[in-house]
Amino acid sequence: MTAPERAGWEGHFAAGHGFRRTDPEELRLLAEAVHPRPDARALDVGCGLGTYAAALAGLGYRTLAVDWADAAVTATRDRYADVEPRLKARRLDFEDQAEVSAQLPRAAFDLVTMRLVLAFMADKAAVSEQVRGLLAPGGTWLVTTPLTDRLPEERHSIGLTPAEVAAFTGVWSRGRWYDLEPGGLRCFVLSA
Questions:
Q1: Which of 65, 102, 152, 177 could cysteine-pair with 47, CB 3.0–4.6 Å?
Q2: Distances (CA, A) of 178 to 28, 95, 184
C-alpha cells in the first residue's frame, strides 16, 4: 500500500467512517458458524472502527482487534472502552510477517476473523498460512468478503476473484461458506 493510500485510510477512520454495519442477522449466522465458547480467544484483523470486534466480545470471546491504521485502533478503544477487558485493540500491520511474529502468539486464537479486509491484502496465500499458524488446534478462520463476480466492474478492487478465493482456501482441510444475503457478501468458514 502506498503512503497516499495509507493516509487516505487514516483520514477515513479518523473521520469516524466505517463500512457495512454488522446487523443482528450477520451475528446470528456468525454464532451458528463458529459456536462460541466462554473465554475462547478471537483475533479480528483489520478491525476498522471495532464494531465486529465488539460483537465478538459480546458473543463471549476475549477479543484482540488489530489494524494497521492508528486512527482505527484509537476509534476502537474509544468507542468500546466499556467492553474491556474482553476487547483490546492494538496497531499491527498484518501483512508484515516479522511484526505479526513478534506481537502475536502462535497457536493462541480459537477464531481469526477478517471482515471486508482480505481483498486489500497483496498475498492471500501468505495471509492464509499466517492465519493457520495463529490458530489453536480446532480453530476457525472466518473471512467475510465481496466477490468480484457479484460487483460492478468499477468496484472489483474491493472483492476477491475466483483465483484469489482458491489461493486462500486451498490449504484448509475443512471449509464451507454462506452468504449474508443473496448475491451479497460471502462468508468463508475454514478449519485445519
A1: 65
A2: 12, 26, 10
Fold of 3-191: Rossmann fold (3.40.50)
55-84 per-position pLDDT tens digit: 999 999 999 999 999 999 999 999 999 998
Give the residue extent of every domain in the chain.
3-191
pLDDT, residue 96, reads 95
Considering the chain, what is the average pLDDT of its residues? Answer: 93
Query: pLDDT per residue over 1-31, tens digit each?
Result: 677 777 887 787 888 878 778 889 999 999 9
Name which residue leads in pLDDT, 37 or 10.
37
Residue 172, phi then psi, degrees to nearest 5: -95, 135
